[in-house]
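[audit] Reproducing an earlier prediction to check determinism. Same input, same settings, fresh worker. If the tokens differ from the archived copy the diff job will pick it up downstream; this log only records the rerun itself.
[audit] input (264 residues):
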Amino acid sequence: MKIGLFDSGLGGLTILRAVAKELPAHDFFYYGDTANLPYGDKTEAEIYAFSVVAMDYLFDHGCSLIIIACNTASAETLRKLQDEYVPARYPDRRILGVIIPTIEELVDRNIREALLLATARTVESKKYDRELEKRGSPLILHSIATPGLVPLIEVGKVDEAAGLATQIITGALERNPALKTVVLGCTHYTELKEKLRNHFAGRLVFISQDEVIPRKLSAYLVAHPELEVGEPAAGKRVIHLTEHRPDYDRVIAQLLGGVFVSEE
């Protein structure tokens, strides 16, 4: 089975690494829209247009299922893609996001109050709040837009990004000392989780999507065997970037062991 993943840049690669480790026998095709990152400052119309191009690429390459490994796109465009694009273009395929599995994780853990760090578009969309409300969850979510983190992570300034995130979280704790849980609501932020866990050890629990998505995807595939179509998978990994960046060669090698980067 071929599974596609889509993000604007680095964050989705951390999800690819995690799901490929969980499901090593499957083929994975990654589409990184590096020419247009970050998505956090784009309009809804722009994000949808970029997403359609990515979906076309991945489905045309034989993917049965695509994971939008981007909270901004999951918040803004996922429902429209599922309700309009898929039925009209690829009715036998599926598109999933990363927000619903994260919400399910919060509900499963019976968390009552949490801090969400996310892009401005994700926070403005109130997608997390709406999904919690749909489930009747009593969880109180304090959302903070953190637009400065993605650009730092993209250029490899992880220490600086972690320092900025630490300041933001510390400020939130000063305002609400009862906070115990932080949701890293952008797949880029997975790169910060260990530094943040070390800094706030014993005080905060961090929910990182690279730890949530593999388990949820595995369960989804068991529940939907009809998606297992086409030639048998061979553990293939293909990465397509809309704009090649030399620094990504290093990141890809670190994250995925130097897998082949396709620019087709």
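[audit] rerun output stored. Observation attached for the diff report: Residues 102 and 201 are 22 Å apart (CA to CA).
[audit] end
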